[in-house]
Amino acid sequence: MDAPLPLRRSLMYVPGHRAEAIEQARHSVADVVCLDLEDNVPPEAKAQARALVAGAVRQGCFRAIELIVRINSPRTDEFAFDSAALADVAVDGLLVPKVRNAEEIETLRRAFGGHPPALWCMIEDAQGLLCCANIAAAADVTALVVGSGDLASSLRLPPPDACVGLRLHGAQIVVAARAAGITAIEGFVLDGDQANPCGFDGRSSFLGQDIADVNRRFSPSEAEVENARSALKRPYAYGDHLTAAEGVIRRARQIAERDALLVTHGS
Hints:
The protein is of the alpha/beta class. The chain folds into two domains: 10-218, TIM Barrel, CATH 3.20.20; 220-267. It is built from eleven helices and eight strands. It has helices at residues 19-25, 46-59, 78-86, 102-111, 126-130, 132-137, 148-154, 162-180, 211-217, 222-233, 239-264, and strands at residues 10-15, 32-36, 66-70, 93-96, 118-123, 141-146, 183-186, 202-206. The protein has an eight-stranded parallel β-barrel, surrounded by four helices. Helix 2 (46-59) runs parallel beside helix 3. The longest helix has 26 residues, at 239-264. It starts with 9 loop residues before the first strand and ends with a helix.
């Protein structure tokens, strides 16, 4: 039986240069908190953000399951400063923006002495989308994340239909993640009330959004759990049907354990 994927229903971005936002994020119910050194930080605040983020990671005390940092692209001058600031910081993962091919992952791994934290790769343009299967299979990669705004721009998706197009192309990212046995995270969507037709494991969000609702949307419903239990009792439960039902039950158990932990540490 394959090991269950980590619980990553919500990936919440927090501007790394805002100390008050980092403090708020400590109490969030997001499964993954991402302290941002890239797009959410203006150029003049990058150095301040690095110091704040490194200090916050060392201090810990976040309720999130995983604490990761979005660095600047290895193709930028800022990357060297980011990697130096995080060299001796025990972060759970690095979110790497604008990844275009697997070779870039090797460059990043070398920058961290061949042993980087778990790598979350953002797919944000046509090149990255075309190579997402190779990126997903690269060493140390644990997740693919859709960078919605830049990807929509790269693919020239018309604004009125951008969400439809992103879901269409997002399916390719989910397939790559499934084949590699890693997580697939949906980007920001305008039609947040819609279901999850592509099968993403979670969604990107911002501090201040309803994270509990995001978690709910990427959790099995009571009906799904009951159907899975019923399927396991059938005499002809085998193969893929059995695997799918067991996966739902495992995910429900992960969520119950997570909820209990949040209650223990105060809601």
